[in-house]
Amino acid sequence: MRTAEIKRKTAETDIYLYIDLDGTGKNTIETGCGFLDHMLTLFSAHSKFDLTVKCKGDTYVDYHHTVEDIGIALGSAIFSALGDKKGITRYGDFILAMDEALILTSVDFSGRTYLGYSLKIPTEKVGDFDTELVEEFWYGFVRKAECALHIRKIAGSNSHHIIEGAFKSAARSLRQAVSLDARSAGEIPSTKGVL
């Protein structure tokens, strides 16, 4: 079972997160931020990861700590669920169209951390959500997932579509990268023999 349970408590957030990489996309998402709930719900649906996220955060300040810390918890959970990474595909990429938005994502579970982020979101907010927090989420994620992730906007003018396209495309890329490759069963997908 490629599952993980993360409990992360700080002075700013109290998070419980459960993931099953071999799930069906079932999810229970309660972050205290409606827009993030929406993004994580569709992330679960498109990755097919079963995902439970419950967070009590200092949202009376703003959503920054909640968004960043959930990104950290999600990255930690995927890292833990992958174990030694034997047999995984390792790489994943996806170009996703969402109306006028066209988003490319590519991931490598190399053990090295990198975020190549180029979304250029035209508005500062979607509802009460600060759009700059999208980068904070994914930066927190890659630090703990120990992967390289590139997120690029090829086209797009609607902030909601751009962000939603990014979460869906990343979900599809991650789904591909963590999938098991029958031809590489039991093997580390690296000529170095370690990731």
List the helices and strands and how they pair.
Layout: E1 3-9, E2 13-20, E3 27-30, H1 34-47, E4 50-57, H2 64-82, E5 91-98, E6 101-108, E7 114-118, E8 125-126, E9 129-130, H3 133-145, E10 148-155, H4 159-178
Helix pairs in contact: 1-4, 2-3
Question: How would you describe the overall organization of this protein?
Answer:
This protein has helices spanning 34-47, 64-82, 133-145, 159-178; strands spanning 3-9, 13-20, 27-30, 50-57, 91-98, 101-108, 114-118, 125-126, 129-130, 148-155. The chain is an alpha+beta fold and 195 residues long. The protein has a four-stranded mixed β-sheet with strand order 1-2-4-3, with helices on one face. Strand 3, helix 1 (34-47) and strand 4 form a beta-alpha-beta unit. The two termini are 20 Å apart.
In total, the number of strands is 10
Described by the principal axes of the CA atoms, the overall outline is globular
- Our estimate of the beta-strand percent is 25-35%
Tell me the series of helices and strands, N- to C-terminal.
Answer: EEEHEHEEEEEHEH
Number of distinct helices: 4
Strand line-up in the sheet with most strands: 1-2-4-3
How would you state the average pLDDT, rounded? 97
